[in-house]
Amino acid sequence: MSHSSRRDFLRHAAAAAAFASLARVVPAADKPAASVSFGLVTYLWARDWDLPTLIKNCTTAKVLGVELRTTHAHGVEPKLTADERKDVKKRFDDSPVKLVGLGSAEEFHNPDPKKLEQSIETTKAFIKLSHDVGGSGVKVRPNDLPKGVAPEKTIEQIGKSLNIVGAFAADYGQQIRLEVHGGCARLPIIKQIMDVATRPNVAVCWNSNDSDKEQPGIEQNFNLVKARLGKTTHVRQLDTPGYPFQEVLKLFVQAGYNGWWLLEAGGKDPADRVAALGQQRELFEQMLAKAMG
Question: Model's pTM, two decimal places?
Fold first, then answer.
């Protein structure tokens, strides 16, 4: 075996091992005990924290997992050089905070083939970046059903695009996490997309939308996607009125979920975001104990 062939073999073997460790919901007969951790998306409360500040504040709040959303002050973007990527990885490796993954804003509904191809290629760049900085996956969005295009055609396009980026991600040991978002946010639509997106490392990122509660009810809607849940889940503040976070957490526990509930937050910033983050973590721990009781 040539040096380059051996190198490719080892990279693919490592990627396969990493992929095997990604959180999945498994059939009930083989279902392990749930393991749900609380983390942060940089979407709102951490949007203006540079990387050292982000790690410091998460450590202080004992919120030990983070998804880095693109365009924020952390600066972890595909333009980083190889040395800069190593520095990002080392910062997390030297801290108690785990880099759960990257949050891209890429989406696959656009009927313009050139724009769709651009989104696919940018997603591939985020996949490489996540691999290099120590993440385990990349968040993407569906993200709409354009007017004038048959919904079935758009759903098929999104699903096929997810298979393309999923195949690429598998070589890097990464999961593709489809955020339940935008004009495709109703869970029956997400289920249709995932029926096309059959790659095993393409997963659903539950997003705690009000539409989750629509008929026939939140448990039935949850059941549509529970077998495809990925490593990350997005939540608002857990004491937000009107959304049944306790009920949903119980469903996750019953499904044997192994992954992260990541706070996206919402509304007006609290006066002390670090303290508020710690309070949300404490509330999560109380809710988790109840859900597992």
Answer: 0.89
